[in-house]
Backbone:
């Protein structure tokens, strides 16, 4: 099969032929119809995240946002068959540990992310899904593969973050970063009736954020973020979401909250922070500010997410910037390096 392969960190990917996958007794193989190009993949290509066990092993096939068709299943697979249109969470679950059995498979004791830690991802014509019954998710008939790829990491992550923040109608929600996760969180928060503030350094991204449902846009390059948010909300945001993962956005989110507010950390840090960030701990204590981590989206929560998409209340397809081929991944990564992407870039030509 054709695949885009990382041979060396931070060097151009090479499109080449590699061996087709074959399923074991509990596994399935998908023909990939669409694969998102995510900033998480960019981080892996950069050589980031080894400090949390998410480094890549070379050669690597990245890609963890996908939609496709089942083309082969193992003898033990009961819930899926050839021809099914499916997706899966980017965080693979074993289906057996305490977290999987308690409905939190995104925290699986044996979790891995497709494309990382030596597991091939979806920048390829075919993808192996082990423990298929515990990981595959059937797509509604009116949800296309491109929408599934958009759902696959950034959208499901944004959706879960809004849930982790316990966002309700009328809440002020400030979202730092209007990239893929940020736009997804903005659209989800607006769909549940929140008042959304988008924060970014790029005016084009802020325009896209308003199209996605933000009622207020703050340019952090030209404005004091905390002051602007406290002024417009008359006291601070109820919920802040950091969708980027740098010290500046973490600080801006926490500083923009009102007393009793909740900060949801979604973005993982890069090489500068390496997982360590400063927080105003005394102000958080005195104001009873909650800091909440949010990782992916548990498989049991997908029916609710897919129902909103199927009903048209959420529209991941609207956040697709463009469809590209395997050979275009390098260009997209270069654009990500310069923060030029404005939405989802999806591989549909393999």
Residues:
């Amino acid at each position: 099969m054709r695949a885009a392969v990382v041979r060396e960190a931070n060097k151009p990917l090479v499109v080449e032929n590699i061996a087709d996958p074959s399923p074991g007794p509990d596994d399935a193989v998908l023909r990939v119809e669409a694969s998102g190009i995510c900033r998480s993949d960019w981080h892996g290509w950069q050589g980031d995240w080894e400090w949390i066990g998410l480094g890549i092993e070379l050669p690597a096939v990245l890609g963890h946002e996908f939609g496709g068709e089942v083309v082969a299943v193992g003898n033990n697979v009961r819930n899926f068959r050839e021809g099914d249109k499916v997706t899966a969470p980017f965080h693979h679950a074993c289906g057996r540990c305490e977290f999987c059995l308690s409905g939190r498979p995104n925290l699986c004791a044996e979790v891995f992310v497709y494309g990382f830690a030596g597991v091939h991802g979806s920048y390829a014509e075919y993808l192996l899904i082990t423990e298929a019954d515990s990981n595959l998710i059937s797509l509604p008939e009116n949800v296309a593969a491109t929408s599934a790829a958009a759902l696959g990491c950034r959208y499901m992550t944004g959706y879960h973050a809004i849930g982790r923040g316990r966002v309700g109608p009328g809440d002020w929600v400030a979202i730092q970063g209007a990239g893929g996760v940020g736009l997804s969180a903005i659209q989800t928060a607006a769909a549940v009736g929140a008042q959304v503030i988008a924060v970014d350094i790029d005016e084009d991204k802020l325009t896209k954020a308003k199209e996605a449902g933000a009622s207020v846009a703050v340019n952090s390059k030209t404005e004091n973020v905390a002051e602007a948010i406290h002024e417009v909300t008359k006291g601070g945001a109820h919920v802040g979401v950091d969708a980027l993962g740098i010290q500046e956005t973490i600080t801006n989110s926490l500083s923009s909250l009102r007393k009793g507010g909740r900060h949801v950390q979604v973005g993982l840090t890069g090489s500068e922070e390496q997982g360590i960030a400063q927080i105003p701990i005394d102000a958080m204590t005195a104001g009873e500010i909650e800091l909440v981590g949010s990782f992916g989206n548990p498989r049991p929560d997908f029916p609710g997410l897919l129902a909103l998409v199927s009903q048209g209340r959420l529209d991941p397809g609207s956040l697709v910037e463009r469809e590209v081929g395997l050979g275009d991944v390098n260009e997209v990564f270069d654009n990500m390096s310069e923060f030029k992407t404005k939405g989802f870039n999806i591989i549909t030509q393999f």
